[in-house]
């Protein structure tokens, strides 16, 4: 694909690591009902530890990018990714709630560093190319739908077998560290600082920075709210059988995979902003179907449509910020950090509402989020069209 062998190796390793990162992300929501039943945890505590995962994601997403300019990209990612294996070691060795909270935090640390590293790497290899970014996030989807299926296979005969899935994730954590060890860094810290000064914060003057960040913020609110609570929601409300509840996560991510592959192809055929607008409309409509349907076929259709619609929204939005990421060293760290606040806040909001009013009403709070995200997309598309028009007339 690329003329340089190191670039090809970086490309392939980034895609491979993102598969494992997808497993890590889905393991949180998939394992949560089993951990909650095993330790007798409350909804509010569960919401808090899911938020801790997102806090870790936020911190490392920022710190990994910032420290790369000092340590070098490779040393930085090796340090942060080591917490992947450590987090599952804590889950396996202790049933202490405080250590469980720490382990969820550390899973977020590993996930955020991976997201920063891989998105930045692919953006540098092919700036603003939505097809490669959608391909990267398609790898995430492959890992994401694989883990719930593995967990279901392990727990069908005995629910306590969820512990073996944790052993599997421990092994995946070690494997991801090995992949990072062999992956070549695209640039060294000296080159990064020469091309994109770390102290340059001029991206705060760019309207595109705010539009992309807000779109990603509310998208991550919806994504983490659904991923973190969907299985628990269906299991506890009894709207779906327990075994089918676990399958919903895999079904969601299969459709995300299909959607990302289709979006990667369509982004080379039609203008990206129209794809973004269509996806955001579908995201709102299918989420309402998912939440308010009372029959299994319609619920499953809502899940499939929601996953398909949300598939390309994140990478396509990131591709619009490609010029800013290339121009400013810390731009992506700030975009990721601010956007990740949505993934931190939403699970706790759902948990708090569920504790007092029930999980059904907790999930309903996501409706406001998807509607606001749709409005952000409309404004972003309008701004992109305006920029393009001004360039043509200039």
Helix and strand layout, with pairings?
Layout (H helix, E strand, L loop, with lengths): L4 H35 L3 H29 L1 H21 L3 H29 L4 H26 L6 H21 L6 H7 L11 H31 L4 H25 L5 H21 L3 H15 L2 H8 L1 H6 L3 H27 L1 H6 L1 H28 L1
Task: Kindly describe this structure.
With 394 residues, this protein is mostly helical. The chain has one domain: MFS general substrate transporter like domains (Growth Hormone, Chain: A), CATH 1.20.1250. The protein is built from 16 helices and no strands. Helix 2 packs antiparallel against helix 3 and helix 5 packs antiparallel against helix 12. The longest helix has 35 residues. About 3% of the residues have low confidence.
At a glance:
By secondary structure, the protein is mainly α. 85% of the residues lie in helices and 0% in strands.
Main traits of this protein?
0% strand; single chain; mainly alpha; 394 residues; 16 helices; Growth Hormone, Chain: A
The level of helicity is: over 70%
- What is the CATH class? Mainly Alpha
Strand tally: 0
**Tally of separate helices:** 16
Low-confidence stretches: 187-199
Based on CA atoms alone, the radius of gyration comes out at 20 Å
């Amino acid at each position: 694909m690329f003329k340089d062998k190191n670039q090809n190796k970086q490309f392939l390793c980034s895609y491979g690591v993102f598969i494992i990162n997808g497993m890590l992300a889905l393991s949180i929501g998939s394992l949560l009902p089993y951990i909650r039943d095993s330790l007798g945890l409350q909804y509010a505590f569960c919401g808090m530890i899911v938020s801790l995962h997102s806090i870790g994601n936020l911190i490392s997403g920022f710190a990994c990018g910032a420290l790369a300019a000092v340590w070098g990209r490779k040393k930085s990612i090796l340090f942060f990714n080591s917490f992947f294996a450590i987090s599952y070691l804590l889950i396996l060795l202790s049933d202490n709630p405080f250590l469980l909270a720490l382990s969820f935090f550390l899973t977020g640390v590993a996930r955020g560093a991976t997201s920063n590293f891989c998105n930045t790497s692919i953006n540098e290899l092919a700036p603003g190319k939505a097809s490669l970014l959608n391909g990267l996030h398609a790898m995430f989807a492959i890992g994401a739908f694989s883990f719930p299926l593995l967990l279901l296979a392990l727990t069908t005969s005995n629910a306590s077998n969820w512990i073996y899935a944790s052993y599997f994730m421990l092994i995946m954590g070690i494997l991801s560290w090995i992949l990072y060890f062999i992956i070549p860094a695209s640039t060294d810290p000296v080159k990064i600082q020469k091309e994109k000064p770390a102290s340059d914060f001029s991206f705060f003057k760019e309207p595109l920075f705010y539009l992309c960040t807000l779109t990603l913020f509310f998208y991550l609110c919806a994504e983490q709210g659904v991923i973190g609570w969907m299985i628990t929601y269906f299991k506890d409300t009894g709207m779906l059988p327990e075994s089918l509840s676990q399958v919903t996560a895999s079904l969601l991510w299969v459709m995300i995979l299909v959607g990302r592959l289709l979006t990667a192809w369509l982004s080379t055929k039609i203008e990206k902003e129209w794809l973004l607008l269509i996806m955001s409309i579908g995201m709102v409509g299918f989420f309402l179907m998912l939440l308010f349907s009372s029959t299994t076929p319609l619920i499953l259709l809502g899940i499939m449509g929601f996953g398909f619609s949300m598939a390309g929204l994140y990478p396509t939005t990131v591709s619009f910020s490609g010029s800013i990421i290339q121009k400013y060293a810390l731009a992506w760290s700030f975009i990721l950090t601010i956007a990740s606040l949505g993934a931190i806040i939403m699970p706790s909001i759902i948990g708090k509402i569920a504790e007092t009013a029930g999980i059904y009403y907790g999930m309903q709070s996501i409706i406001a989020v998807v509607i606001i995200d749709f409005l952000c997309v409309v404004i972003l598309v309008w701004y992109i069209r305006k920029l393009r028009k001004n360039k043509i007339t200039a």
